[in-house]
Write a structure and sequence with these properties.
This protein is α/β, with parallel strands linked by helices. It has 7 helices and 12 strands. Strands 7-8-9-12-11-10 form a 6-stranded antiparallel beta barrel.
Amino acid sequence: MTTGTDGIAKCCVFGYASNGANGLNYEIVGRKVFILNPSSVVTNELIEGLLAAEYELYILKDREKALRVLHKFPDSVLFINIDTGAKEDVWEAYVRQIMKNPKLRSVRIGILSYNPSPELAKRYLIDIGVPCGFVRLRLGIKESTRIMLKALEANEAKGRRKYVRAVVGQDARAGFNVQYQGQLREGTILDISSVGMAVQFEAPVDIPPKSRLPELQLRLRNSLVRVNGIALNQRADNPLVYVILFQHGVETKARYQIRMYIHNRLQEEIDRISGEDT
């Protein structure tokens, strides 16, 4: 194995078709991306950068509970911050344990650390052979994010999907309203991504395809999001259900708010699996 100047291992970087324990093919739906034991710096700016690139990102805080999640999603990518939480030799043993486990052999591991030691990087990249690189956080958030994004792309973490979507329907603290033809129309958000959503109106409404819906208001728990939208189509089997495309720039406050809601909504399910919600 060789390593590039950016610290990404140059072997085992291309995925292979396989079905995880959840029965989903990552080549289609992408890989879940986990950061285990993140530092406060990683938790903020770096995570925002990965979410903006539309990766399905989650936080894990406990290494033993994390194993439950990996067994559920063995085609995942796992970045581990080895600077805190345990001694370095404990983290090394943990990484080796995962990579030697036949049921977890498809987990793609990367290392996060502020430690500049070339010997430490060599141990993980060459001796152990982690496929998602050794990210030197000392290089700064921008460069660290770039390296992680390159590793995720090499490991086909996005699959064929372009945007991360969350099911919203059971969230009582989420909904929407819009003024249409002089009336306030309200309803439920069924699912949402940063570029659009499927909704169900409370009462029948006739919205022709490609109709503009200015000043949509989305209630996403503690966030009130205002966006303009276009009604794309109506469900044939349920005329109350519409698909709406958002109209906003590449990076806006609204898109950031929607991404954070999606991230938090999806994180809840991972917390339930790992036991972090208890």
